[in-house]
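Please predict the structure of the following assembly.
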Amino acid sequence: MEIIFIALKDSLALTLKLLCIILPLSISYEFLKHRQSSIEKKNFAVFGISGKGFIPLVTGIIIGLTYGAGVIIYSLRTTNTTKKEAFLILLFLSICHAIIEDTLIFVVIGANGFILIGFRFALAITLTYLLYRSRLFNAQFNGFPRKGGRIEQ
Amino acid sequence: MLVQNTLLHMNTFYSTVKRGFLNGILITYKMVKVIVPCYIAIEFIKHLGLIEVISAFFKPCMSIFGLPGESALGLMAGYFINLYAAIAVITPLQLSSKDMTTIALMLGIAHSLPIETGVTRQTGVNAWLMLAARVVFSLFAGIVINLVWKLFS
C-alpha cells in the first residue's frame, strides 16, 4: 500500500515540474498567435518551402503537431502550397516538431538538450534538402499539377 | 482617448495571458491523467520484480541503441500513448544521461503515433508513408547517436 503513496507523491512532483514548463509555454503560444501575419512574408526557399509554407512550418516546430494541428491544417489547405511543398513541410515537421516543449520536459529528467535540438534540426534539414533535390521525388509531383488551390485528398 | 486605448491594450494583454494560462492548466490536467497511473504501474512492476524479466527479454533489441532492456517500456509508451506517459515510465527507471538523451531523441522524432498520424492524414499528405518515415528515422537516430556518443567518450 505504501508503494502507491510513494508513486503518487513522486508522480505529482514530476507533474509539478512539467507544469512549470508548460504554463510559460502555453502563455507565449497565445502571444505568438498575434504575430503570425508578420512572418508570412519571409522566405525559406532553400528547401523548396515558400513564405506561405513558413507559417505551418514555424507553428509545427515551436508548438508541435497535436496543439498546432489547427493552424497547420488550415494554412496548408487555404494558401497555395503545392502538394510537393506540403510533403516537404510534413517531412520536416515529422522529425523536428514541438522543439521547445519536448526538449524541456526531457531536460527536466536528465537528457542533454543541446544534443536533442541540434540532432533533430540537422536531420530534418538534411532530409528535406535531399528529398527536395532528388529526381525521383520531383518526378512524382511534376505530372500532377494542383487544381483550385486545394490539396487533393 | 489615450487612456481608453491603453486600457484596451491592457485588456487584450490580460485576456491573452489568461487564455494561455487556462490552456496550460488544461494540458496539465490531461497530463496528470496519464502520468499518475503510468507511474504507479511502473512502481508496481518494479516492486514485483517483473522489471528484470522485461529487461532481459528486450535486452537484445535495445542493445542496438546502447539502452538497457527495461527502457523498451518507455519507448513503447511514448510511441503508442504520448510523451507524458513515456516520461512517467522512464523517470522511475533512473537511467544515465546518455540513455535519457538517446530515448528523448528517439521519442522526439516519433511519439503519440495514433494521434499524430490522424493529424497528418488531414493535411492531405500520405499518412502511412509519413508514419513509416518517422519510425524508421527514430530508430536510425537512436543507432546513430549511440555510435556518435561512444566515439566521443
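Chain B touches chain A through 55 residues (CB under 8 Å). Helices of chain B lie at 2-47, 50-62, 71-80, 83-90, 97-109, 113-122, 127-152.
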